[in-house]
Structures are given as C-alpha cells and as structure tokens.
Amino acid sequence: MATALVARLLASVSVSGPCGVLRCTVTPSLEKCFSKYFSSDSSPKRPLPSYLTFLNKQRDFYKKKYPELNNQQLMKEVGRIWRELPQHEKQHYEAIAKSEWDRYKEQMAKYRSELNPVEEAALKEEKRIRRQKRKQAKIKKELTAFGKPKRNRSSFNIFVSEHFQEIKGTSNKEKFKALCEEWKNLSNPQKQVYSQLAEDDKIRFENEMRSWEQQMKASGRGDVLNYKFTRKLKKPVTEPLS
To answer: I need a surface site. Which of 20, 136, 156, 179 has the fewest CB within 10 A?
Structure first.
C-alpha cells in the first residue's frame, strides 16, 4: 500500500529549470488519496468570537449564581446577559477576540508557508469537505422547516425500530448487533412482512413528496426542489394496501 502511494506521488513530481527545481502536480485523485494521511490537527485553531470568550470566562460564575438552571437554560440566560451588557464592557471581550484573531492569522500564514504541496492539497480537501458538510446541514435544516416528508424506511429499519426496546443489551451497539443476527435468522416469509411494510412506506413517502413539491411550487418556493436532498418523482403511485 505504502509503495503504491509513493509511486503515485513520484509520478506527479517533475524536475525543471536550470537549477533542477522540483515541481509537484497534485491531481484531484492524488489529493483524495493522500488527504487521509495528512491531517490539519496540528494547524492553528480558529479563535473564539467575543461572545464565546465572554461565555468561557464567566461560565463558572453564572453556574454558581444560577445552580437551579440546566445547561440549556444557563446558556439562554448568559446569552440574554451578553445582549444587555453595556457596550464599554463588551469592548473588553471584543478586544481579546481581535487580538486572538490577529495572532491566529500570523500563525496560519507561518503554518501554510511550511506545508509541502501534498499537505497543502490535503488541507484544501479538508476545507472543501467541511464547507460541503455545513452546506448540507443548512439545506437539511431548511427542508425540515419547509415540512419535507420523512424518507421511507427499509424493511430492516422497520424491524429494528419495532424490536429495539425489547432486545437485551447494555449498549445500543450491542442491541444493534443482536438485531442484525436476529434479522439474518428470519425466514423469508417473516422478512416478507417487513418488506411489505417497507413498500407501503415507500408509497407513503412518494405520495407525500409529490404533494409537498406541489405546495412548494404553489407557494413560490420551487427553488427548494433543486436542493440536493430532494428527489423528483416521475411515475404516479398507487395508495398503500390496506
């Protein structure tokens, strides 16, 4: 494995110029191949904004002041306090955040200058993946807010949801493993019951999706149908069997 990776890397290296300058062309496939071997864990960490700086410094104080609040309630209360904080007090934390940000930019510039071409490509790939995940999370949140129907479940997923609570096991992982074994040992007629339930759920999803898409178009939000997580339906479907 290591030999193959080195061979691919050497294939992208060329020598040019009168001084024999090494050049490395990192193709997308090579970038993807090496991205898992180079992590940006050693890169400078992005500093906290002013509010989170305030939260970190004052968390223990407000925990003692409001012991009856759980974490969610405490965060809500601290957020309210921050919003009502006088501007001259906020400036203290904003100055800390700005100082940390300036230091971060200097460290990041130094860090980038020391990267070789493969490490630079791996860093870009990690950033691309993070951006894609943030975009997908945002899209999923928007689609949920628009009332997008829940996707249909497979026969195995239906089986798991029906028996998960009754199965013995000390952890979810152990329960899931036990259910996998039970599923493998089911006879074909037993599995057919769940296959029919899955087929009915598929019809439910497709009918609800068609209705939802029509609602989005009627409300002037047909643009959400172009999101990655939506799916255009072509053929009409029948109602689930009763």
So the answer is: 20
Instruction: Report the interhelical angle of 2-11 vs 28-35 (nearest 10°).
Output: 150
49 and 97 in contact (C-beta within 8 Å)? yes
For the beta carbon of residue 230, count every other beta carbon within 10 angstroms.
Answer: 17
CB atoms within 10 A of CB 55: 19
The helix or strand, by DSSP H or E, that contains position 24, with its residue range, turns out to be strand 21-24
CA-wise closest residue to 50 among 93, 11, 80, 7 = 93
- Residue 5, classed as helix, strand or coil, is helix
Tokens representing 22 are: 């090494």
Output the pTM of the full model. Answer: 0.47
Residue 201: its pLDDT value, please? 94
Contact assessment for residue 92 and residue 132, using Cβ atoms and an 8 Å cutoff:
no
The neighbour count for residue 161, using CB atoms within 10 Å, is: 11
Radius of gyration of the chain (CA): 27
- What span, in angstroms and rounded, lies between the C-alpha atoms of 160 and 176? 8
Three-state secondary structure string covering 141-204: HHHHHCCCCCCCCCHHHHHHHHHCCCCCCCCHHHHHHHHHHHHHHCCHHHHHHHHHHHHHHHHH
* Alpha carbon distances (Å) from 165 to 60, 95, 153, 168, 194: 38, 52, 18, 8, 18
Residues of the chain with pLDDT under 70: 1-41, 169, 227-242
